[in-house]
Amino acid sequence: MGQPNNQILFGDSTKEILDNYLRVAGGAEKWKALQSVIISMTQYPKEENVIKIASVHGGQIYDRWISILKSGDSSSTCFNGSNYWRQVEGGAPESFDFYTPVYAKYARLGEPSFLLRADSIRFTGTFDFLAGDKKTLCYKIAVYVDGNRHYHFINTTSYLLEGYTRGDPGDPVTSLNDYREISGLSVPFEEVIYRGMNMESKFVKNLIYFNKIIPIEVYDYPKGSTNIISTSLLFNLIQKEK
Fold first, then answer.
1. Residue 239 burial (CB < 10 Å; 0-12/13-18/19+)?
2. Do the beta carbons of residue 204 and residue 190 sit within 8 Å?
């Protein structure tokens, strides 16, 4: 996750670090104004297609994750502000509404939007961020949301977010790589999750759309054992606008 580094960078306050991080990410105002994101990615080693759809409705972020296996079988999790559920293709939805108040605080359009909504953030020092064979000197900041703490690691040179973790023993570490600019926002096209030195999964993003109009019915609670999502609706969502 991270090891203390005796190089202390004086004068770098929490605010200065976050201001530089958000500037490199595309700007705080652009992230605050963001209304939706659609991401199509491939998850390894399963080689399944994963689609994330998220958008802002009445100040709350709704999101939906759809996984499509090589066999064609699919499953989905969805949060619509009132309900949170999981459904396997052809099966009835499984409700996790008890988790709704917590999930509402963690739904996000991207890591910058998550940090902008944090209850508090504290700079804890400089550390070598370790993930697989990756070792990068980073500012380690503690991010608090609803009483829970997460650690984010910001590169001391580029100010890119290198990764994050909850930080408790045995917790996975997410490494962020291959940053590219989309619509003026800097986003990682690769996310690798490690537990110890072992890679658990890797997500390689194939396309990202920002601020595309997402119909509210994307987040409708299913009526019984129905399809995960309309095939035509999903097709239209992941097509590039002309």
1. exposed
2. yes
Neighbouring C-beta atoms of residue 35, cutoff 10 Å? 15
What local confidence, expressed as pLDDT, does residue 126 receive?
Answer: 94
Strands 2-4 and 148-155 turn out to be: unpaired
Sign of the four-CA dihedral 214, 216, 217, 218: positive
H-run or E-run covering 124: strand 120-131
For 170-185, write each residue's pLDDT tens digit: 899 999 999 999 999 9
Q: What is the pLDDT of residue 1?
A: 53
Cβ neighbour number for residue 184 with a 10 Å cutoff: 9
Task: Copy the structure tokens of residue 118.
Answer: 């944090």
Residue of 218, 14, 201, 199 lying closest to 124 (CA atoms)? 14
What are the DSSP E strand ranges found in 45-119?
48-57, 60-68, 74-79, 84-88, 94-95
Which residue matches tokens 């605010």?
15
For β-strands 48-57 and 94-95, DSSP reports them as: unpaired
| Displacement of CA 47 from its chain's centroid (Å) | 19
List, in sequence order, every residue forming a beta bridge with 44; answer none if it has no partner. 202
